[in-house]
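Limitations

Structures in this collection are predictions, not experimental determinations, and the ligand pose is part of the prediction. Treat each record accordingly. The example that follows, with guanosine-5'-monophosphate as the small molecule, is included so readers can see exactly what is and is not provided: the inputs are given verbatim, and the output is the predicted complex.
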Amino acid sequence: MQLLKERILKDGIVKPGNVLKVDSFLNHQMDIDLINEIGKEFRKRFPSDKITKILTIEASGIGIACLVAQYFNVPVVFAKKAQSINIDGEVYHSKVESFTHKRVYDVILSKKFLNADDNVLIIDDFLANGCALLGLIELVEEAGASIEGAGIVIEKGMQTGGEIIRSKGIHLESLAIIDSMTDTDLTFRG
Ligand code: 5GP
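Predicted complex:
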């Protein structure tokens, strides 16, 4: 998506540890016009009228997913990160290792909001090693629901997540795929 790539080149900042900061337009301050365009692009790439729910993970996925959901007219449900949990049978549960915070979270989702009739589109801001996405996929599988696909705003193609998700046969659409980045140079795939 050209508009997004141009914005990453203009305002993205590469930090040590292979982290791209896009907090001036995507996940701290949010450029609503840009994210609306992102929503329209995901709609084009996932045209199915069978999608019943958009699933994301807190915190930075939520705002993006809500704007995207306007173009699908379905509810957004988000997985919550819990410090520690008692799994009481009322929630689906998986574990996610955070790339940016280097720690493992328990991730939960109330059983009330996802069931076997659902066809889910997963949305997230970044794909790096794939842990967040795999955790969300596990929640959908626990629910017995179907996965329509996963829409990622920025995939870091030099990390393994994209390969892992595509090899599972999941329809993955990333709007910008970064092939390499240093503090002076950033290149995209395609
Ligand atoms: P993964 O689980 O695929 O390794 O990482 C995905 C999650 O880590 C995303 O939900 C995102 O919040 C965070 N993340 C991974 N890489 C980056 C990055 O380069 N920049 C930012 N801002 N977040 C990232």
